[in-house]
Amino acid sequence: VYIRKHPLEIPPPSEKDWLKDDEEDFFLQDPDRKCDALPQPFRMINKLVMLVFENAMEIIERREMLREAQKLKVQPTKCFPTAEFQVTGRANCLAVSGKYIFVGLSVGLSAFKVSDCKEVCAWDAVKTEICAIHALDLGNECHVLLAVDEMGLVWLFCFHKESFVLIKILNEVEDISRRSTCVEVVLSPGGDYAGVLLQGNTKAWLEIYRLPKDSWLKEMEKSPGAAAGLACRERRSSWTSVGDIFLLQESPVSANKADAKLSLPVLLLKVKPPKPITGSSFKSPLDALKKVDDDSMLGLGYNHLIKDSQWEQQEAIFRSTYRDYPEAEGERESKEEIPRHATFHFLLPSWILQVGPEMKVQPGVPAGISVHWDGSHNFCLYLLNRPLKEKVDSDPKPDVVWPCAAPIACSAVSSCSRYLALACEDATITIWDKHLGYPLSVTAILEERLIRSIYFL
C-alpha cells in the first residue's frame, strides 16, 4: 500500500493568473459593451436621455390609468343637430309653446313648427329687436306671448292659427322722459295672469295684469279677419340635398293682414317697494291702533310708537359702544336706499293664502302672488281677486306678511306649487308646505356663505 508522506497541497497561483482590479466584475458586464464604453461627456448625455425617457413612460402610464378609469364612468349622451334653419337677422332668444318655436330676432319675431322646423309666420312691422320671449299654450291653437325689446318695452301678442296679433304694449307712454324699462316678465301657469317688473329713473314697481284669454278665443272665432293676423309673412322652405338638413329661404310674396281688435289686459295690482321705516308721529297708542285696518295679520311695521329722537339715541349708543370697529363703506347709504328689484311668484290657493267664501276659486288658477324686495325682511302675499273699488294706482297693502329674521336673499316655488323655499342672507333655508301651512325643514349653512339663487329639482 502506497502512503503519501506529505498532505496534498494546492499549489500557489502564478503571477500571470492574478485578476486585475478592473476585471473583477467581468461576469456582470454585457459582452457587447465590452469594447463600447462611452467617454465623458457622452455618458452624462446618455443618463439625461434615459431620465427623460423614464419620466415620459411614467406620464404615459398615468394617462392610461386615467383613460381606463374614465371608460368605467357613465358617459353622457351626445346629441347632434338633425336640422338647421336660417333666419332673417340675428336670433337673440327663443321659447317653446305647444308645437311651435318662437324666436326673437333683431328685426322682430318668427314662429317655426317643432315637427319640421318650417317657418309659418313672422312679425317685423316695427323692425324692433326682441331680447326676451315668454310664451304659453292657451289651447285651441292659441298662444300668448310676452316679448321684451331692446328699449325695455313689453309687447303682448296672441298667436292664433299661425298668425301674430299684437294686442298692446304694456309699458308704452307718450312722454319719453317717463318711460319705464322692463326688468322681468312672468306668465302664470295657465296664462291667466302676467307680472311685469318695471324700473323708472328713480323708482321701481310691479304690475300684475289679468289676461282675458277666454275672451280672446271667442273673439278669434267670431272674427274671421282676426285669425289672419297682423303683418304676417309666409315663407317657403326648401330642403337641401343633405339628409335632414334644410335651409329656409324668404319668399318674395308677403301678405299684410288687417289688425285684429282683441280685449285688452286689465291692470290688477301695482305693488311698490316698501318705504324705509322712520320715526312715528303718533302721540298715543290709540292713534297707532286707529291706523290698523284688521288685527288678524302682521303689518309692515309702519304703525309704531318709536320717535325719531329714540332712533337717534339708539344710533348714538351703538356708535359709542362699537366705535373701535370700522364701519363698512356705504353702509349708511344702503340702509336708506329704496330697493329696485323684486322676486315674485304666482301661488295657488292654500292655507297660507286663504280666499274668502265670497270669492270663486278655480282649480289650477293662481289666487295670489308672493313678493319680496331686495334687502327686505318681509315676505308679502297679495290676493289677485281684489275688490273693484280699490284704485289701481294706490299702493295696496299685503294680505299676508311673513317677517323673517334676516333679509330675504332669494326664493323658489316647486313645480307643483305646494312647496315654498326661502333663503335669507344669514344662509338659512326654510322649506314651507303651503297647503298645510307649516315649515317642513330649516337648514342653516354653518360656513359664511351668501345664497344667490335656489331651485327645486
Radius of gyration: 39 Å
Order of helices and strands: HEEEEEEEEEEEHEEEHHHEEEEEEEE
Q: Give the overall shape.
A: extended
Structural class: alpha+beta
For the biggest sheet, the summary is: 4 strands, antiparallel
Q: Proportion of β residues? A: 25-35%
Average pLDDT level = 78
Subunit organisation of the chains:
single chain
Percent of residues in helices comes to: 10-25%
DSSP strand tally: 22
Sheet with most strands: strand arrangement: 1-2-3-4
The stretches of 5 or more residues where confidence is low (pLDDT under 50) are 226-258
Helix count, DSSP H or I runs of 4 or more residues: 5
Distance between the termini: 111 Å
Can you offer a commentary on this structure?
The chain has 457 residues and is of the alpha+beta class. Helices cover 15% and strands 30% of the residues. It contains five helices and 22 strands. The chain has helices at residues 42-72, 213-222, 285-290, 308-321, 331-336; strands spanning 91-97, 100-105, 109-113, 119-123, 130-139, 142-149, 154-160, 164-169, 181-187, 193-199, 204-210, 236-239, 246-249, 266-271, 342-347, 368-373, 378-383, 400-403, 408-413, 419-424, 428-433, 438-444. The protein has a four-stranded antiparallel β-sheet with strand order 1-2-3-4, with no helix packed on it. The longest helix has 31 residues, at 42-72.
